[in-house]
Design a protein that fits this description.
The protein has 211 residues and is an alpha/beta fold. The protein has ten helices and eight strands. The two termini are 33 Å apart.
Length: 211
């Protein structure tokens, strides 16, 4: 039996996907939770094989949660299911340890395929994201930050989502001094002078403010 947990703050979304996944032989949605707190409580005494995680929870940052969850349960496969489709979010989720990424505009059977793939030890990226990534090879669109290193891009995203430098440091497992150094480099490369300007840039590039 493949044990699956759905984490999304919209009950109707969870209900729809539970019904879909329940059609697969040998699969069981063993829990549906709508918040980071409820998920933490469930995981205290229960286990699952695959966790389907929305990045936008009312009480938790999904990209931060991936690292925290895998630190506790490294054997658990995580599939991100999110409205966020920007390449930086995808890269950050995968670098944090997620094994699959599916957007909410993807066809429903893509989630089924993602779960099947990660349960078998593979990695899965939704077809719309694969197409988008291919198209961006020759397109320096607003949503990309090619001038930043992967570490700097992660700092950028965390700051853009309202995290303090100390929170960024603890999330990434680095010192405050290193976090400040990364932020300074981001400022220099992007021509910024404050976190306020950083957040405005993130909004213009579609990296924050999405549902």
């Amino acid at each position: 039996m493949l044990r699956i947990v759905l984490v999304d703050d919209h009950p109707i979304v969870r209900a729809g996907f539970k019904q879909l996944l329940g059609l697969e032989p040998g699969w069981s949605v063993v829990a549906e939770v709508g918040s980071a707190r409820d998920l933490a409580a469930w995981l205290l005494n229960s286990h699952c094989d695959v966790l389907v995680l929305d990045l936008s929870l009312p009480d938790g940052d999904g990209l931060v949660m991936i690292r925290q969850l895998l630190a506790q349960r490294p054997e658990m496969a995580i599939v991100v299911l999110s409205m966020h489709d920007n390449d930086l979010y995808v890269q950050d989720a995968l670098s944090a340890g997620a094994r699959g990424y599916v957007t909410k505009r993807s066809a429903p059977d893509e989630l089924v395929e993602a779960i099947r793939t990660v349960a078998g030890g593979g990695l899965y990226l939704a077809s719309d994201l694969r197409t988008q990534t291919q198209g961006e090879k020759d397109d320096d669109g607003d949503g990309r930050l090619p001038e930043l290193t992967s570490r700097e891009a992660q700092v950028f995203l965390l700051l853009a989502r309202g995290h303090s430098v100390s929170r960024v440091a603890s999330t990434m497992g680095i010192s405050n001094k290193t976090a400040y150094t990364h932020r300074s480099s981001v400022y220099t490369k992007l021509g910024l002078t404050s976190d306020y300007e950083l957040r405005l840039l993130a909004k213009r590039r579609g990296l924050v403010g999405m549902a």
